[in-house]
Amino acid sequence: MSLIEARSLRRDFVVPQRSSFARARTQTALAETDLDIAEGSSLGIIGESGSGKSTLIRLLLGLDRPTSGTVTVDGRAVDASASARSLHWLRRQTGLVFQDPYASLDPRMTAEQIIREPLWALDIPGDHRARVREVLAQVGLEPEMANRYPHEFSGGQRQRIALARAIAHRPRILVGDEPLSALDVTVRAQILELLIDLRRTTELTLVLVSHDIGVVQNLCDTVVVMKDGAVVERGATADVLLHPSQEYTKTLLAAIPVMPAPPD
Ligand SMILES: Nc1ncnc2c1ncn2[C@@H]1O[C@H](COP(=O)(O)OP(=O)(O)OP(=O)(O)O)[C@@H](O)[C@H]1O
Ligand SMILES: [Mg+2]
């Protein structure tokens, strides 16, 4: 059994029309999609803007309700109607880094409070203060920075705080929506190393939306390519990136800027 299983997963949005005479339009953000993610594996999700990548990962995490279809994590049904107990369990299993770290960090909380909050909310045993310092170091931030507020950090530092918060409770599954996009080359290389290391030393399962082929190449075993709410190609990372079968994938890869190789 796969750790994460999606079956015929679909999400439609009703888009109101500007004129009150026009009928509301339905937009399919995700058409029937099947997906299997094995424990300890790493999946990259690529595709043009608006292709349904964020919609898909939100559904996988029970943050959004599918129009139809199912998601299970470790055999348990996950959707917005799941019990509080299941959602608590799911939160314990997962760490999440959103596309926009500024929007996801509470401006009234210090970095320390932001990183500690899930440890407290999820009843994680151990010394939370010490764990905060440990993960801050892991993402390359100084312990003194723990007392600062989100607006006192640069974009890349905020992204690192979001990542520290996501990994602090040692989740089994880490899901990132462009988690490295706001980082400069050096920090990006450091965070990449950290993620590679977490994958090597733990059974971490990684699901990563990325526009950055270098990140996908370094971190992901398999890739799915999305277009207009559908998976148009999937396979082993090397196969998809080096020998794409779809014209769309070829065009997409040609258009994606390749970040320079990290310095040694
Ligand atoms: N809450 C919503 N209401 C209406 N339409 C939505 C909503 N969320 C997403 N959509 C639409 O669904 C489609 C898929 O959106 P999604 O955010 O999943 O794309 P994406 O692949 O993550 O794009 P990007 O790379 O720009 O983040 C888009 O056409 C978007 O406009
Ligand atoms: Mg998105």
Automatic annotation (TrEMBL):
Q: Which UniProt keywords are present, listed alphabetically? A: ATP-binding, Nucleotide-binding, Transport
Question: What organism is listed for this UniProt entry?
Answer: Microbacterium hydrocarbonoxydans
Q: Which domain of life is it from?
A: Bacteria
Provide the ABC transporter domain boundaries: 9-253
Full protein name: Peptide/nickel transport system ATP-binding protein
Q: List the GO biological process terms.
A: transmembrane transport
UniProt GO molecular function = ATP binding; ATP hydrolysis activity
**A Pfam family:** ABC_tran
Task: Give the family from UniProt.
Answer: Belongs to the ABC transporter superfamily.
Identify the SMART domains for this entry. Answer: AAA
